[in-house]
Hints:
Elements: E1 4-10, H1 14-27, E2 32-37, H2 44-49, E3 56-60, H3 66-79, E4 84-87, H4 99-108, E5 113-117, E6 124-126, H5 130-147, E7 159-162, H6 163-169, H7 180-190, E8 195-199, E9 201-203, H8 214-230
Parallel strand pairs: 1-2, 1-4, 2-3, 5-8, 6-9
Antiparallel strand pairs: 4-7, 5-7
GO biological process, one term: dolichol-linked oligosaccharide biosynthetic process
GO cellular component, one term: membrane
GO molecular function, one term: dolichyl-phosphate beta-D-mannosyltransferase activity
Amino acid sequence: xxxxxxxxxxxxxxxxxxxxxxxxxxxxxNSKILIVDDNSPxxxxxxxxxxxxxxxxxxxxxxxxLGSALRYGIxxxxxxxxxxxxxxxADLSHDPIYLxxxxxxxxxxKYDLVIGSRYINGGGIENxxxxxxxxxxxxxxxxxxxxxxxxxxxxxxYRVYSRKAAxxxxxxxxxxxxxxxxxxxxxxxxxxxxxxxxxxxxxxxKLGKSKLRISEILNWFLYIIKLSLSS
Length: 231
């Protein structure tokens, strides 16, 4: 049985992440769940610690940022000698029902990266406004154009990394926000690692507020420009 760690960054996700973890424990009972909480004012960390789940570890940081949280979680997972590292959102937009098959594909197919993809046959998005769909599609098109990525969904955070791919992702030291997703893909495909997409239905959050702000979108596009210049 492969050693699997699941990294979930959180910020004010108390109502969502408890439900998510309960489902993960049922589907992958032997996996390690690593929560990286950015000191949530709503008490996310305290609620999770009170669950008393043996394979659940909660780390609290005094900083913000999806990319930096993912790097922090990946480092911790690698210290645990994890063979495969899953990353996913805390807001229930990433249905854990896909976890067994995504990890199985990574393990048996010896893939370095399995992407939970919204943009291949069988994948899709539920309850997103048109503006979010346009931004997401445009971002993926632009990244594919400058990177020649073979993947259709390069911005999805629902992923399974091998140790080799995770170590490459850690090289994205300046990608502290959503740009971490494309930076890690860029480094992985440039290293000719084995990648594949698996279809998922992305469900827009029902509880809480999205963390995606205009400033995050602008930073993302600025990072795209940097990548295009470096390539």
